[in-house]
Amino acid sequence: MGSNAKRPSLEPIFSSKYIETAVELRFSDLPPFGVVAPPEAAARFGNSLCCARNIALSTDLDELTESLIAQPKTLPWGSAQSSTQSRSRKKLIWLDEGSREQAAQLMTNGPNAAPRQKLHEELVANGSGGVRGSSLCSLGLANELRQCFEVDDVPLAFQPNYAHADFPLHYDLPGADGFGRSIVTLNVKAKATILIEESLDHPQCRWRFELQPGDAWAMRGYARTRCAHGVSVMGIAVPTPCTAGCRACRVSLNLRCGAHDEGEVAEIERDWLASPEGAERM
Ligand SMILES: [Zn+2]
């Protein structure tokens, strides 16, 4: 960056007022932990949006947290052009050789695509088996997360995320780095508030729910294909990019399951582009 580079903004994307005006969702205590209140949200979301509190895993959460903190972090999470997002990082850990190529191809597509060289470095590092902690992001953990929310789609890849700032409302592009028919997220370290906007069908309706470490949530169907989501990291604003060993960030672990075919991707994206609210979130 040159001397004229803009200093990163530390302003949160979501003001506390914005968050408070979103209506809080309540979830069932029983699997698959779908939305139960308010009634109109329960009717529209049902089990397309789920959240489970303090889920039981055979992997120790503290051990998982430490291993994810220790990882080298190479891939930008969110737009590299955004001063607020460009400090956050993500990683990609595929679950088998078959999903490796599919995941890598999807990740190098789209507006927030991983640069090919960086993704290659990431894949080589993972593939060597020498990265501490990758072994905790195993097929066993993936299957526990899928079972929690009764997800049938095949697990493709884990995506650890390291947030140094809020992540604005956006849509996970299904034919690109936002791939996955069902997306499960384990909240690993620090609190967060998830914001959901029914951008296509009820753009005035915004909802929220708070996550503690150990909580997990999932989206598929209506919540995944017709709604935008964003993440408030509750005041975390770190002016520097994330590095190996960084303890300042909120850490979450996405599990991306099942891929849409090309026809489905085109249909989903066509609906987004046709709506002013949807297009704005792409
Ligand atoms: Zn960090």
Automatic annotation (TrEMBL):
Highest taxon of the lineage: Eukaryota
Gene3D superfamilies given in the database record: Alpha-ketoglutarate-dependent dioxygenase AlkB-like (2.60.120.590)
SUPFAM superfamilies (alphabetical): Clavaminate synthase-like
Record protein name field: Fe2OG dioxygenase domain-containing protein
